[in-house]
C-alpha cells in the first residue's frame, strides 16, 4: 500500500512539472497582446510607451529566458505579478480560491449525499416510482442551463419567497469571519462566530445547489448503472443464498463494488466544480476564482492566467491522486 | 401440522429433508412463457445424495435455484410444492426464507471465480452468515471460519482467511465456497455444477469433500451436473431431466447399467468411458431439444427418439414406476422392459502402418516463453514458461492426443505446431520441411495442408459472414476452385461431408447451435484438403450427445480422407475414445507418451496415474492428488511433479529425461510404474473384447 501511494505521488509530482511547462508555453504562444488590453488605444499607438511597458513586464525578453524567470520564481513559490491588479498572482489566488473551494466542496458533498443514495434506491427499486423520479431529476439537473437555473433559484427563493439570502458569501453589512483558512464555515467555527456560520451556510445553499445540479444527475445515473451491474453479479446471488438481509447485500456486497466507477466520476466532477464555477459565481456575486479567471482572461493577464491554470492543474492532479487512493481502498486487486 | 393427517402411516415419522412435488417454474420472456421446469418431483432424505443430470437448457439449474427460491425476476414458480422437513418453502415469507437460507439449506454455485466478492476478505465472507443467523458471536465465528477453511483443505487457512479472492486459484475458491455453504451445518446442500470450471485432479478433490460432508455430517446433497460421471461418483440416486421434465429417476448405478428412458439411454452411451473398447464409436442421437416455446404435444423426446412408437407423437407419457424404486417417463419401457444395448460398434479400420514413413508434423525440443509486461520500471521482467522442451511427432493417418490440466501448455503447443506462435527455441517440421521461423509468405502454401479447429467455434467464425462466404473465402484465396460457381458447389459438398444441409450456406453463424457451429469450423478446416488438423479442445464446450456426434464425425472423416489429428483435450475419456496415441503434459513438458490403450490400462508416470484415476466414473478406486500445479513463472528444479508426487525420492532432485521405458512407451520419471494403486478396474468383457482385436 505504502509503495502504491509513493508511486502515485512521484507520478503526480512529475506530471505537475510537465504541466507547468506546457501551460507556460501555451499561454505565451497564443496570439493576443496584453498591450492593447492594458494601455488603451491612445497609449498603445505610441511605440515608446509600448516598449517601456513591455520592458517593465519582461515581455521583450526571448521566450526561453521568460520561462527561466518563471521557473525560478515558481521554485521560490512566486507566480509573478499580475499585469491587471499589480499584485502578486499568488496573493490574488490566495484571496479568491477559498470562496471557490468552499462552494465547490459543498456542491460536491451535496452531489454525493443526494446522488449516491438516490442512485442506489433507483437501482434497487428498478422501474419503480423512485427510479422514474430519479431519472427525471437527473435529466433536469444535467440539461438545465446553469444561468437559467441560477436566476430561477434567486427569483423564487430570494426574490419571491424570501427563504434564502441574496447573492454574496455573507450579509453585506456583516464582517466576514476571522480565521486562517478563508473558508467561512471553518473560520467561523474556529473563531466561535455562530452567527457568521449560520449566515455563511445560508448563503451557500442556493449557489451550491445550482452548481451541483448537473453533478447530482451524473452521479445518480452512474451509481444506478453500477449498482444494477453489481446486483447481477454471482456474489450477490451467493449472499442471498447465505440468507443475508437484503440491505446487508446491497450495502456490504453490491455497493463497494459499484463505487469504483462513481469514484472515477466523482474525482472528475470535483475538479470540474472547482474550475467551472464561473457562471454560478457571476450570478451569485461570489468572489471566487471563477470571476478572477474571467477578468484575467479578458485582460490577457498572462502571469495571472498561467498561475490560475497551474493551480487548477495541480488541483486536478491532487484529485486524481485521491481517486487512485480511493480505488486502492475500495478494491484490493489494485493494491500492488 | 395439518399435513400429518394425510400422510400414510407407512412413512417414517421424520419427513424427508427435501420433498419436491410437481415443481413448475416458468420464464416470462418477450416471446412468451417458457416452461423451464415442468413437473419435477423427487425427495431427498437425511444423509442421502441425489444427482440431477441433463444437458444445457434441460432445466436442471433452474430446478436447483427454485429449491432455494433464488430465481431471477423474470422466473416464477407457478406450481407444485417444495417441502423442507415438512415446512412449505413456497409459503415462507421473506423473513422466514432469509432465516432458512444459508442456515439450514445452502447452495454452492458453478463459478468460483465470480461467486466470491472481490473486495471483501475471505474470512468475512465465510463468517458473515454465521453471525447474521445468530449462531455465534463474531469472535467465535472467526475461529470457526478458519477451522472450516482448514477442513475444506485450504492451504495455510489463517493466512488465507485474511486474503482476498483474487489471490486464489479456482480450486481454492471453490473450497472457500464450500466452506461458506456448510458454515452453519445445513441439513441440505445444493451444489450446481460445482466442479465444471475446474481441472480433473482438482475436481476429484472437491468431489471428495462433498462425499465427506455427506458421510461425516449426514448433509443431504443435491448435486446438479451435466456430467454423469461426476454424479455417479457422489450420488446414490439420480434424476435425469430433458426439456424441463424429469424423465427418469432411479439409483445411479441402475441408470448407468440399464437406463429405462431413451434419453437417459442416449446420455449414458454418448459418454466415452474408460472401460469401453478402444476405437468404439460413441452412440449419438440426432436432433436438438425441442423449442421450449413450442413443446411437442406428445412425448418431448419423440422427434429424436430411436425407440418411438405410434402413441408417442400424440400422448404425453406420465412418470410411471417401471421397476421397484425406479420411475421413467416413456411408453415403451412402461411395462418394465429394458432398452436394448446400442448396436455393437463397427470395428474401426486397422490403423495404417506408419512405422517407416517419416512423421507428418514434428516438434523437436520446442520451447515457448512469454515475456510478461513489467509491473514497474524497475521490476525484473517475468516470463511464463508455457512450453519447456517438447519432442512430439504426428504420423500420417494417426490421431495423437495431448492431455493435461489448464496451464500445462497444451494449447500453446497447438499454436506452435501450426505456427500461430513463433517458438522461442527448438524446431517445427511439417512434411519434412523446417517451418520454425518460416515467414507468413513462406507458410502460405503450406497453410491449406495444416489446419486448426478451435474450442469456441463462435469466436472463430466471423459473425457478419454467412457460412457460405466463410467457406468460399479460403477456397478462392488458395485458388482451389476455377470459378465462384465451382467454389459454391464445393461448399455444398463440404457441408454435406460434415453432416449439414447444403442449404445452410446462406445462414449466419448465430443461427446454428454449438454443435453445428463446430461442424462448420471443421468444414472450414477441410475446405483445402488438409493433411493434418490440429484441434484444440474441439468438443469441450459441447453437451455430451453433441460431443459424441462431433467425435464420430471427426473419426469418419479421418477414415475417409486419411487425415491426421493432433487432438488437444483435458478430458481423458474423450482422448481415449478418439486417439491412437496419447501424450500427457505437465508444466510445459511431456511426462508420458505412448499408445492410448496401454497408457490408460497401465499408466507409468505418477501424474498419469493420478490423472486417469481422477476421472469421475462409477466404481473406480481413486487417487486424489493433493496440491495444485506450480506456477509457470518460476519452474521448479528437478522433476516438475516432485511437489505433488506421492513416490518422490531424493533422486527426483535431478530432472528425469523423457526416455523409452517399454516398447513404444516413453515416460519422464526416475521410477516409472512405482506408483501403482492400479486404479482402472477394466471390465473383463471389454478387456477380452479389446484383446480379441
Ligand atoms: S415415450 Fe416414445 S418417444 Fe418418448 S421416450 Fe419413450 S419411446 Fe421415445
Ligand atoms: S521423477 Fe520422482 S518426483 Fe518425478 S514423477 Fe518420477 S517419482 Fe515422482
From TrEMBL, chain A:
InterPro entries: BPD_transp_1_N (IPR045621), MetI-like (IPR000515), MetI-like_sf (IPR035906). It is a multi-pass membrane protein. Keywords: Cell membrane, Membrane, Transmembrane, Transmembrane helix, Transport. Residues 97-323 form the ABC transmembrane type-1 domain. It holds the Pfam family BPD_transp_1_N. The keyword Zinc does not apply. The chain crosses the membrane at residues 103-124, 136-158, 200-219, 258-284, 304-330. SUPFAM superfamilies: MetI-like. It is found in: Cell membrane. Belongs to the binding-protein-dependent transport system permease family. This is ABC transporter permease. It comes from Plastoroseomonas hellenica.
From TrEMBL, chain B:
Keywords: ATP-binding, Cell membrane, Membrane, Nucleotide-binding, Transport. InterPro entries: AAA+_ATPase (IPR003593), ABC_Ni/Peptide_Import (IPR050388), ABC_transporter-like_ATP-bd (IPR003439), ABC_transporter-like_CS (IPR017871), Oligopep_ABC_C (IPR013563), P-loop_NTPase (IPR027417). It is a peripheral membrane protein. Residues 18-268, 361-612 form the ABC transporter domain. The keyword Transmembrane helix does not apply. It is found in: Cell inner membrane. It holds the Pfam family oligo_HPY. Belongs to the ABC transporter superfamily. This is ABC transporter ATP-binding protein.
